[in-house]
Amino acid sequence: MAWGTQRNWRWCSKCQGLWFGGSAGSKCPAGGAHTKVGSGNYSLVHNATGVPGQANWRYCNKCKGLWFGGNATNGKCPAGGGHSKVGSGNYTLAHQSGAGQANWRWCNKCQGLWFAGNAGSKCPASGTHSQVGSGNYRLIHVTSTVRIHTKVLTNPSIPIETLLHNTREVYATGQIDVEWASNEVLSGLPNLNDLDVGTCVMGVTTAEQNQLYALRNNVGTNEVAVYFVRSTVPPFNGCAAHPPGRPSAAVVQSASQWTFAHELGHVLGLFHFNNNDRLMTGLGTFNITNPPPDLVASEVATMAASALTINV
Amino acid sequence: MALTFEQVRATLEPEEPDYQKAAKLGPDALPHLENLIVGEHPLLASKAAYLAGMIGTDRAAPALDRAVRSSDVRVRIAVAAAAQHLPTETASDLLVALIDDADVGVQKVALRSVPNAPSATLRARLEGLSAGKADTLARNMSREILGLPAAGDKPTATRKSARKPAKKAKPGKAKSRGKG
């Protein structure tokens, strides 16, 4: 169920297109290879289900660009002929709303994605790219990442895909990528499904938390495991207290759409602040106004300083 | 000024409510907690049930009774957890209805909340649970509370108890639980 997160997508200042910088042999319609000079590090999700946005965006193994594969045409590839989707994942782009850099557009001439915020685009079909008929796509660009593993004892009322998507949206405002590295169903643990979290104070854990958070299949060092349980004892929406060296949090079945991101914030070192515009509100994330909730600069700095966020 | 429903609700809305602080709202919060317990939001209902137990007093009885009879298992778990904050007699009365709940989570939490000196009725229920064919977790927990060997142990086997050193327990004889 976990989806793929892929960085190293780059803006080309020569043609304004988006291309994958992790492969050699790119082909730019402005001539030669694409350039990543001046570009941020864009992160895309692929093979995702249940997330807002438009799927069927594809990587072309000929020119290394991103193009829309949902139309009857393969468009125009700068390497010749139409684009190819051979070997590509199925990428989903935020469409019309969401976090990230807006003004990315679909070109109806070549089917490629390009940035319309600058002058001087170059379309392989001829002349400049066109944004006629295009939505306003938003791309996340990041400087660090945190890897998340989900472990399910009870499925949350809000789909995990939505919780991860929301977390990506919020963290993207701090240029922090959120990777959903794995998902595992933990069956046969009815005694831990209503998890005793005691006082839920950071650094203080119960025997049940220690037992559950020791179940870390696939979880590497400095990666976070989030456990979905039916309830906690006493009743909380979630709890981020965890034993040393096992960064973890619990999220209950009826938690809000922002609880996951909120508890992850605690794991990364954040504290409450009584403001319902902010992710770390101490007044309850069901009351968040003006979503997505905000991270302030000091919170981003705290998260960036955490050993759990890795520079990319 | 009278305590309002909104004020009570606001204390329970945080991701991690401060129950110690919320309990200072006192008995005037109990009618509002009762309304939250029967409300549509399962998280607020379970938080309200727990807070009602923390506030305690005789005036909490209607709210706690509603929580015990809730169809939502999370609310019954919350009131089972709250029982540990209640006087022995009140806690025993609540737990009689919860220790053999159909849900293993409710059973677990209720059994953990059994007071040191359970009422005779609750003790009888524990004995029934320990001897019956109930879920293994509940059976073992009730046997541990009563100071009996874990199911499957040889009668003379030494075992560890979470609450009292097993070596002090004698097979077939109920372990003393504090003053009881």
Distance between the termini of chain A: 24 Å
* Secondary-structure element pattern of chain B, one letter each: HHHHHHHHHH
What level of helicity do the residues of chain A show? 10-25%
Percent of residues in beta strands of chain B: under 5%
What's the number of extended β-strand segments of chain A?
17
Number of strands of chain B: 0
Largest two-chain interface: A-B, 29 and 26 residues
Average pLDDT taken over every residue of chain A: 96
The rounded distance between the terminal residues' Cα atoms of chain B is 43 Å
Number of helices of chain A: 4
Q: From the alpha carbons, calculate the radius of gyration of chain A and give it in angstroms.
A: 21 Å
The description of the largest β-sheet of chain B is: none
Helix content bin of chain B? 40-55%
Shape of chain B: elongated
Which spans of chain B have pLDDT < 50 for at least 5 consecutive residues? 155-180
**Spatial extent as radius of gyration of chain B:** 18 Å
Assembly type of the shown chains? Answer: heterodimer
Low-confidence stretches of chain A: none
